[in-house]
Amino acid sequence: MAFDGVVISNLVKDFKERILDGRIGKIVQPEEDELLLTIKKPSGNTRVSLSANPSLPLMYISEKNKQAPLKAPDFCMVLRKHILNGRIVAIEQPRLDRVVRFTVDHLDEMGDPSEKYLYMELMGKHSNIIFCDSDNRIIDAIKHIPSRVSSVREVLPGKDYFVPITQEKKNLLEIEKGGISPLLSGKPNPLYKAIYSSFYGLSPLISNEICFRAKVDPFQMGNTATKSQLDSVTEELWKLRGDISEGIFFPNIASNGTEPLDFSSIYLSQYEDKTVEKYDDISTVLNKFYASKEIYSRIRQKSTDLRKIVSIDLERNVRKYDLQLKQLKDTEKKEKYRVYGELLNAYGYEAKEGDEKIEVLNYYDNKKMVIPLDPTLSPSENSQKYFKKYNKMKRTGEALEELTLETKGVIDHLRSVLNFIEMAQSEADLSQIREELVLSGHIKKQRSQKNASKHSKKSKPYHYISSDGFDFYVGKNNIQNDELTFKFANGGDWWFHAKQMPGSHVVVKTNGQEMTDRAFEEAGNLAAYYSDGKNSSKVEIDYIQRKNVKKPSGANPGYVIYYTNYSLTAKPDISGLTLVEED
C-alpha cells in the first residue's frame, strides 16, 4: 500500500490528459486540510481532490462533489482571489518525488498576465498544500509550519518555497544505467531497502516488486550481492524507468478475496497467488482503495469526543457493577444470621452470662454449630441482633439485585453505542448517536446542537438487497434499531440480531413472501457483520418474526425482549449482498 512517486507520476499523466489547459471554475475547502477544484474544459468538468490529511494524504480525480462549509476558510479565499478562473498551463513532478506542481496562468489585480504555483506535497504527516507566486515565494499554505515546529523548513507567507532534501537520493529518470549497480552495491542494507533509499519516489512495495521480477531475494544485502543479482535488479529498474518515461502504467489492486491488500501503477506480480485486478485509471484505484479508509479516518477524528464520553461512562459503570456484585455476594451471608437468630431462640437458655460463644445443634443439617455472642447482651438480645442483620442484608440484597440489573443494562447500552460509533460513516450517523446519548442522559444537549440538528441531514439505515431479491435493513444506531423494529417492520417481517452482544437490528421485509433458506443465511451473515463479533469466524444469531419482539416500558433505545426464537450460526460475510446507496 504505497502512494509513491510512481503512482503520482501516473496521476500527473492522467491530470495532463484531463485538466491541462482547463480553467479553475470552482474552489472549495470541505475540510481544514482538503481542497476540491472543479476544472472546466470544453469536453466537460473534472473535479480534483487534494488532501493533506496527515494520516491519509491523497490526490485524485473525484467523481463525487463535497459540500462547502458555510464560511470559506482563509486559504480557500486566498486561492479564489488569485487563481479562480485561472488556466492550468503546466503540471509537473520534480525528481519523481511525492510533489506535484500546478502552474496557473491568470490576470493579476492590474489585469496583467501572471503565473502562480500550487504545490501538492504528499509526504505522510508532513503533507501540505502550498500556494506560491511566480518567484516561488509562499503566499499562503493550508498548514502553516513555524520554526518552532520545524527547524528544516518554515512554511509561512513571505518565505521562499523549497522541498527539503533530507536524504541523498537519485532521480531514476536521469541516472545512467551504469550508475545503478554501484549505487546499490554500496549500501549495507537488504536490496529492497537499498532500492527505495537510493531513488526518489520508489516505495518498499515497488522495491519488493523489482526484486521479485529480478528473481532476487529482497533481503540479500546490497554490499554482498553478486554481479548477476545486481545486473538483474538493474535491468528491472531500467524497464521501470522506460515505462514511466513513456507513460506506460498498469493501475491495479491486489486482493485476497474481498480484502484489498495493495495497489500500484505497475503490475504487482509478487501477488501471483492473489487476485490482481486492473482498472482504467489510477484515480479509480485510489477511490476504490482509499474511499473507506478516508471516511474512517475523518469520522474517527470527529467521533473522538463521543468515544471519550462513552468510554469514561462505560469504565465508571463497569467499576460500579463490579462493586455491586461484590456487595451482593456479601449479602449471601444473610441466611447464616437468620439461622443464628432462630437457634439462639431455641437454645439460648444454655448460654451463661459473659459467654462469647455457644455451641448448639443446627436442626437444619443435624450438625454442631458455634454461634458468636456479644457477652454484654442476653441470648435474646443476641438473637434480635442477628435477625436485624439478616433483615438489613435481605433489604440490601433486594435493592442490589435491581441496581445490578440496571447497571448491567447501562453497560450493555454503552457497549452498543461504542459499536455504533465504530460503524459510523458520516456526520449524520454521529449526530444521531449523539442524540441517543442525550436521550439516555449521558450528555447534555447544547443550544448549538439543537439548532444544528434541525438543519443536519438525517442518517438512514443501511439497505441491502439479497441474492434472492429480499430487502434487508440494518440499523446504524439504537434509535434506528427502535424505528426499524417497531415503526418500519410489519408483524410478519423477520428480525435478526447477534446473540447476547452489541449489534444492529436487521429487518427483512417479506411483503407476504416466504423467505428462502439462502435469504435466512444472508440475513444472519448481515447481523453478524454489523455486530461486536464482526472479527470472529462465526457468530450465533437469534431470529424471530417481528410480532414476537417486544420493548419493555422505559427501556434504553435498542433494548428488546423475546422468548421463543430460532438460532443459526452465521459468518460475518456480506459479499453476496448489494448495498443500495442513500439518496
**What profile does the largest beta sheet have?**
7 strands, antiparallel
N-C termini distance: 32 Å
* Rg value: 34 Å
The outline comes out as elongated
- What share of the residues does DSSP label as strand, in percent? 15-25%
Q: Kindly state the mean pLDDT as a whole number?
A: 90
Spell out the key features of this protein.
single chain, 583 residues, alpha+beta, 7-stranded antiparallel β-sheet, 14 helices, 21 strands
Question: Secondary-structure blueprint of this entry?
Answer:
Blueprint: H1 5-18, E1 23-31, E2 34-41, E3 44-51, E4 58-62, H2 74-83, E5 87-92, E6 99-107, E7 113-121, E8 128-132, E9 138-141, H3 180-185, H4 191-196, H5 204-213, H6 227-246, E10 252-256, E11 259-264, E12 275-278, H7 282-302, H8 304-330, H9 334-347, E13 357-362, E14 367-372, H10 379-423, H11 427-439, H12 447-455, E15 462-465, E16 471-474, H13 478-488, E17 494-498, E18 506-509, H14 517-529, E19 539-545, E20 566-570, E21 578-580
Antiparallel strand pairs: 1-2, 2-3, 3-4, 5-6, 6-7, 7-8, 8-9, 10-11, 10-12, 13-14, 15-16, 15-21, 16-18, 17-18, 17-19, 19-20
Helix pairs in contact: 8-10, 9-10
